[in-house]
Amino acid sequence: METIGIIVAMPQESDALLRLVEQRDCDEHGSYRFYHFRISDRVCWLLTSGMGRVRAENATRVLIEAASPQLLVSVGIAGAVNADLQIGDVVNSTNACILENGGQAGPLQPLAHLSQMAWQSAQFILKSGGAELYAGTAITTHGTQFVPQEPGQFPNSVLEMETGGIAGVAAEKGLPLLSLRSISDGPRTPIPFDLEQMMDEQDNIRIGKIIKTILGHPKMVPGLMRMGRNSRKASDNAAIALIAAMRQPGPIINW
Predict the structure, then answer these.
(1) Nearest 10 degrees: CA dihedral of 219, 220, 225, 226?
(2) Pairing relation of β-strands 42-48 and 2-8?
(3) pLDDT at 222 over 70
(4) Do the beta carbons of residue 5 and residue 43 sit within 8 Å?
(5) Are 57 and 165 spatial neighbours (Cβ–Cβ below 8 Å)?
(6) Strands (E), 59-129
C-alpha cells in the first residue's frame, strides 16, 4: 500500500482536501498535527507547514520521519507569473527553482509529473468546472517579486513560497515530489497589497500591518474580498485535482 505525504502551507488548503475525504484520523508529532486518510489503496498523511520555505523544509523532514512516504506532494495555491493562466487553473510543475531576493533564479530542480491516467482524471474534473490543467514551473520566493525571464524560459510558471524548500529535502532523501498549485492571483487579478511588505523575515503575516493598511486605504476592501473568493476557488481546485489523480487505479506519477 502506497504512502503519500502531502504538505500544504495554510489551513484553507488543508480544509479543501479534508472536505473531500469521508473518514480521517488525527494525531500529533511534536508541534505538528497530522491527518491520515485513505484514497483508494493509498494512505495519505496531510500536514500543514505554515508559510515559507524554511517552515516547509522543517515540516517535510518531520513528515518523512513520521510516515516514511514513497511520494511527497506540495499542493495549494499560487500566483500566475504571466497573464495566460486563469483563476482556478492548476499547474503540475515539473521543475522548481528558488528566486532569491534581488531577482536571481537558482538552478531548476526536476519534479515528478502526473502519469497519463492521473493527468486525464485531474483534467476531466477540472474541465467540468471550467478550469484547465497545465505543466509548468514552480518558482519559490519570499512574498511577491518580479520574475526576470526570457520568453519561454519558465512556461506556465507559478510563484509560491514552499515547493523549492520541499524539493530540496525530497532530493536529499531520494523521494519524488509532485507539485500541484492552483492560480489564486496574477497579472490580471493581482493581490491588492504588497505581500512582502506584510510579512516579517520569518514569513509571518503582520496582521497589524494589514489592518493599518486597510484602514488607511478603504478602497482596498473590494480587492480583498475578490482575493478571498479567488483563494477559496484555487484551494478547492488544487484539492479536487489531487484527489482525482489519487482515485484512479494506475500510478500517480512518472518519475
Answers:
(1) 100
(2) parallel
(3) no
(4) no
(5) yes
(6) 71-80, 90-100, 104-105, 109-110, 113-114
Residues 6+ apart with CB under 8 A from 153: none
> What pLDDT, on the 0 to 100 scale, is given for residue 151?
45
Q: CA 80 to CA 82: how far, in whole Å? A: 6
Query: Positive or negative, the Cα torsion across 197, 102, 158, 186?
Result: positive
C-alpha cell at 93: 510543475
Torsion region of 203: left, alpha or beta (phi above 0 gives left; psi -120 to 50 gives alpha): left
Cα angle at 39 between 36 and 40, to 5 degrees? 135
Q: What pLDDT score does 147 carry?
A: 58
Integer distance in angstroms from the first to the last C-alpha of the chain? 18
Average pLDDT over residues 116-145: 91
- DSSP code at position 196: G
In tens, the pLDDT along 10-55 reads 999 999 999 999 899 999 888 899 999 999 999 999 999 998 999 9
210 exposed, middle or buried (CB, 10 Å; 0-12, 13-18, 19+)? Answer: middle
> What are the structural domains, with CATH classification, of the chain?
2-254 (3.40.50.1580)
- Look up the pTM and report it: 0.86
Distance CA 169, CA 148 (A): 26
CA distances from 47 to 60, 73, 141, 203 (A): 9, 10, 21, 18
Q: Which amino acid is at 61?
A: R
